Description:
By secondary structure, the protein is mainly beta.
Amino acid sequence: MALAASTSMAQASANPQVGLMVGSDNGVSIRHHDLQFGVGINRLSFSVDKTYFFKSNPNFYWGGGAKLQDHHSKQLAARAVFGASTKVEDFVFFAELKPSVYLVNKASVDLEANIGVRYQF
């Protein structure tokens, strides 16, 4: 049973997904294979993350990436990603925590979070 769940989540992440996210960034979320892309419209931002599913529980994943934000001034962050997702029909619901270290213009550490839904093609 666990092997079947692992296989189905691996297949689910291989198909392109497009949806919306709200939280620290409100905008568009795109996932294809193990890469996630985000475009935030509330604080104009672009992000890319590489993720890995836990083999013991394929509903949870972790990873790392970068974020470029242009809110009053340009900022660049390195970040980790910890998330959970579940698939219902063709929709993937997700929640993520993203500890981010901003390195350019205003050095800071932020804990960002998003929830959202993506349609899987």
